[in-house]
Design goal:
Elements lengths: L11 H14 L4 H15 L2 H12 L8 H14 L3 H14 L4 H13 L3 H15 L11 H14 L5 H9 L6 H4 L4 H4 L5 H22 L5 E5 L2 H10 L10 H17 L5 E5 L2 H10 L9 H11 L4 E2 L23
Helix pairs in contact: 1-2, 2-3, 3-4, 4-5, 4-6, 6-7, 6-8, 7-8, 8-9
């Protein structure tokens, strides 16, 4: 169950406890599960307990996939229940370490924004844009909230559009423009006695709600399953019937890249790659009451891994090593 489920439909405290128990059963997915548990605790109002979960994760920061994300969430949570000085210290530390993931930047910038630190929020969004979007290429799906948030804050500050604001406008697909959605005067229209102004604001709110629903309808990436060479060898030795799916490891890697490019060309956002292991796949097949030789299980297994937070975004960021595991950068390997 996602944390955005309305409070009247879920006991957030009980859901957090369930996720903590599940994290104990699946330690390889503890980071994702405990972050969701902390989100439920925040929604329940028990922010100190959520901080305790973030601290629990940070005790093993070296083994985390995204320690910067955990620190950003902790800072945002701390500020909400009166620990402003500690939150600011964490935010300053994150800005100094320049994380390569857009999510921590968005979280700390929105924390500043929500406490009326608009100039600091704009500086944080801009710092992230300079770091993560150094050229005019199509930004990854994960960076879209960074551009939208920056556009919103700059609109509230009355700053003129720049190239990144224009890029945000082109990425935005709602019938109501970003300039309208982020108009700082909108709050006054809610108190208007003019029916036309109220109807216009209702239209804007509906557009915003539609955008939020669209984002929430795809909480996990559309992921393609990747088998490293040793795992694929072991898989085919144990289940030779899958050889028709994987004629060779080279063909498998080529199929992954071509499939993802086709999805991207068709306009599918939020693409990713999940890496399979034979023991994990066998456990999944057992949980489904099926046999690992069944090829129809493979896409279901990929979806399950993505839902457990195991997906890596595709395409890799510029200069990053290729997703296939080679030491070469993506641009000179499968991205060539």
């Amino acid at each position: 169950m996602r944390p955005d489920t309305p409070a009247e439909n879920v006991d957030h405290t009980a859901e957090a406890a369930r996720l903590e128990r599940t994290a104990g059963l699946y330690p390889e997915d503890a980071e994702t599960l405990l972050l969701r548990a902390a989100a439920h605790l925040e929604l329940s109002g028990d922010r100190p307990a959520a901080t305790a979960l973030y601290d629990r994760l940070l005790l093993s920061a070296d083994s985390l996939d995204s320690p910067s994300l955990v620190r950003a969430l902790k800072a945002s949570n701390l500020w909400e229940y009166g620990h402003e000085a500690e939150a600011r210290a964490i935010i300053d530390g994150l800005r100094a370490t320049t994380p390569a993931d857009p999510a921590p930047w968005v979280i700390i910038a929105e924390a500043l924004e929500s406490h009326d630190e608009l100039e600091a929020a704009e500086e944080t969004f801009t710092q992230a844009a300079r770091l993560l979007l150094p050229d005019s290429t199509e930004p990854p799906y994960a960076a879209h909230p960074l551009l939208y948030g920056r556009h919103r804050v700059r609109r509230m500050l009355g700053l003129a559009h720049d190239d990144w604001d224009t890029l945000a406008d082109t990425l935005h697909t709602s019938p109501v423009s970003l300039d309208e959605l982020h108009d700082p005067k909108r709050v006054w229209s809610l108190g208007s006695e003019n029916p036309a102004e109220l109807l216009a604001e209702i239209s804007r709110l509906r557009a915003e709600l539609g955008a939020y629903r669209e984002a929430l309808s795809r909480p996990f990436p559309v992921a393609v399953l990747h088998w490293p060479a040793p795992e694929l060898t072991e898989l085919l030795a144990a289940y030779p019937a899958l050889a028709t799916e994987y004629p060779s490891h080279e063909a498998h890697l080529s199929t992954i890249e071509s499939s993802l490019r086709e999805l991207a060309t068709s306009g599918t956002p939020n693409l990713g790659i999940v890496t399979g292991t034979v023991p994990s796949y066998e456990a999944f097949a057992a949980s489904e009451g099926s046999t690992p030789s069944d090829p129809t299980l493979l896409p279901q297994y990929a979806t399950t891994l993505a839902a457990r937070g195991r997906a890596v975004a595709w395409p890799p960021q510029r200069g990053a090593v290729c997703w296939c595991g080679s030491p070469d950068s993506y641009e000179v390997c499968h991205g060539a």
